[in-house]
Amino acid sequence: MTDIDRAVPRRRLPVFTGILVLIALAILISLGTWQVERLHWKEGLIADIAARQAASPVPLADIEAMAAAGGDIEYRKVTATGRYINNKERHFFATWRGQTGFYVYTPLELADGRILFVNRGFVPYDNKEPEMRMGQLTGEQTVTGLAREKLPGKPSWVVPDNDVAKNIFYWKDLDVMAESVGLEKASVIPFFVDADSTPNPAGLPIGGVTQVDLPNDHLQYAFTWYGLAAVLVVVVAISWSRKGAKAHQQ
């Protein structure tokens, strides 16, 4: 093998390494930039939800019109008037401030006969059944709360299946909630309302249980990807400078 033959792979190796470094650097910078974009999106979403919760409530008809037009109704303040059908309430397994129990979803029959399922709030485990509480709301009632969209399906395979026979729901399947108490799907408004924290005369359920939990770690992730890109540049620079010094000494 001649000196020229030995020199060719030595020249190609740094070029190949340099290409790999540039590709890795481009990927790391792209991931960091993507997280910055996600950060701006998440901050806008959080601000939008906060504004919706701070706004004045609107009539139920306005939210229905928005939903029918394909608009985003989630967390918008709404008010509705009707009569609770207390013997058809459904129970969603939940925890509230460290205590295990249920959210009580009660059908609210409107003046036109349609049904709106209202999450009236939390009751401790031992107060699941209505007879274990201090009475029910009767007569015409007006509820103010937040509109919540109907789930398109089971959120995750790790969520247990709903136990309809025992009236224990692990995910909010509006259609099954209605069907299980003999309500026609066509008469049920296709979203929920979470009641606000207005105290119930009997003390239970405890309203205002809506939890808005939107993790916002995108800035941390962006720093991580940009930091790895910076580390890569430093490591490569040190490695090449050492090789250059070694070659100069030879």
Report what the structure shows.
- Helices cover 40% and strands 22% of the residues.
- It has 250 residues and is α+β, with helices and mostly antiparallel strands.
- It has a five-stranded mixed β-barrel.
- Helix 1 (3-54) runs antiparallel to helix 4.
- The longest helix has 52 residues, at 3-54.
- It is elongated, with a radius of gyration of 29 Å.
Largest sheet: 5 strands, mixed, barrel
How would you sum up the global shape?
A: elongated
Number of helices: 4
- What percent of residues are in strands? 15-25%
Mean pLDDT: 86
Strands of the widest sheet, in order across it, are 2-4-5-7-6
Question: C-alpha Rg, in Å?
Answer: 29 Å
Quantity of strands, as a count: 7
- SSE succession: HEHEEEEEHEH
Helix content: 25-40%
Structural class: alpha+beta
Task: Give short descriptive properties of this protein.
single chain, 250 residues, alpha+beta, five-stranded mixed barrel, 4 helices, 40% helix, elongated
Could you give the topology of this structure?
Layout: H1 3-54, E1 58-59, H2 60-68, E2 77-84, E3 90-96, E4 99-109, E5 115-124, E6 140-149, H3 174-179, E7 188-195, H4 218-249
Parallel strand pairs: 1-2, 5-7
Antiparallel strand pairs: 2-4, 2-6, 3-4, 4-5, 6-7
Helix pairs in contact: 1-4
Give a short overview.
The protein is an alpha+beta fold and 250 residues long. 40% of the residues lie in helices and 22% in strands.
